[in-house]
Amino acid sequence: MQPLTDQLLHCALPDLPLPAALHPRWLAEGVLQLMPENARRAVVVSAGIHGNETAPIELLLELLAAISAGSLRPDAALLLVFGNLPAMRANRRYLHHDMNRLFGGRHRTAPRSHEATRAAELEAVTTAFFDHPGTPAGDRWHLDMHTAIRGSLYPQFALVPYHTHPYSPAFFDLLAAAELDAVVQHTQAGGTFSHFVSEQFQAQSVTLELGKARPFGQNDLPQFAPTGRAIRALITGAALPARQKPPVRHFTVAESLIKTSEHFTLNLPDAAENFTCLPPGYEIAAQPDRRWIVSDTARHILFPNAGVATGLRAGLLLAPGAPHLSLPE
Ligand SMILES: [Zn+2]
């Protein structure tokens, strides 16, 4: 295990030396604000909102180590967020409640839990960061890094929250430079951290799914290197690395499979990968009061999971293309 991972898991990160010119300040446990003079943009980078999604946590620790060593010199106001520390220590997705369903104030009506308290805290520190007089108002970004539970035909992809403000061409350039394989546009509001930051602060905010979750120290870190390089370019103002892969594929969420019965079933093998294309007319899911049939246009399944609690999303059906892609006029 890397020493810095050890420090993170033992709450010892605040002892890390950091350049005084960045005015480092821990706003909460696992939340570091860096505020260089005359910052050009504001960037939130978060990982570990799900505690067992270790590779992005290690990527964020690498960035932190490089900043500490002085080899990475951000000229952006930065908020680095390690999301769910107790879940990381327990190597679990969450302790009581999926934190990435509790943002946008949903923590207030959810049952009391560690995750509800932490989601409220992360909303508060994110607000404090964007309200800071040193944080530029016009150029706001948020990358919330995750790994997926199952395999994926497109191994690395972005989930763009539903938004009504413009997402810039520079944002899509960043996703391309990060070598993401696909971009999925949400069409409904959600309780994710990225949705909250997008809506609340009109930020270019996105959830990144960067591969499959593995235990600390067992991740294939080279797979995550392009994302790391793109983040470094974003926070230093350097040119984005050139894309090596084929063009990014775009999808739009056409339908959410919401499980409202204990007797919900999903007609899909356990090994089916994200983005699997299903035949039109196929019954993908059923419960006593309804059946979900695959349409001609929305044939790709994402995040199928019959095991979610009732009331939650058991999968998404995607249509190819990006009809809701909003660009500045
Ligand atoms: Zn996650």
Index terms:
single chain; 329 residues; alpha/beta; Aminopeptidase; OB fold (Dihydrolipoamide Acetyltransferase, E2P); 2 domains; twelve-stranded mixed beta sheet; three-stranded antiparallel beta sheet; 8 helices; globular; binds zinc ion
Gist of the model:
Pathway: Amino-acid degradation; L-arginine degradation via AST pathway; L-glutamate and succinate from L-arginine: step 5/5. This protein is α/β, with parallel strands linked by helices and 329 residues long.
Provide structural commentary.
Transforms N(2)-succinylglutamate into succinate and glutamate. The protein has 329 residues and is α/β, with parallel strands linked by helices. It folds into two domains: 1-236, Aminopeptidase (3-Layer(aba) Sandwich), CATH 3.40.630; 255-316, OB fold (Dihydrolipoamide Acetyltransferase, E2P). It is 24% helix and 24% strand. The protein has helices at residues 3-9, 54-69, 85-89, 106-109, 114-131, 169-177, 193-201, 225-236, and strands at 25-28, 31-34, 42-47, 77-82, 140-148, 157-160, 182-185, 204-212, 249-258, 265-266, 276-277, 283-287, 290-293, 300-302, 313-320. Strand 6, helix 6 and strand 7 (182-185) form a beta-alpha-beta unit. Helix 5 packs parallel to helix 7. The protein binds zinc ion. Zinc ion is lined by residues 50, 53, 146.
Chart the SSEs and their pairings.
Layout: H1 3-9, E1 25-28, E2 31-34, E3 42-47, H2 54-69, E4 77-82, H3 85-89, H4 106-109, H5 114-131, E5 140-148, E6 157-160, H6 169-177, E7 182-185, H7 193-201, E8 204-212, H8 225-236, E9 249-258, E10 265-266, E11 276-277, E12 283-287, E13 290-293, E14 300-302, E15 313-320
Parallel strand pairs: 3-4, 3-5, 5-8, 6-7, 7-9
Antiparallel strand pairs: 1-2, 2-4, 6-8, 9-15, 10-12, 11-14, 12-13, 14-15
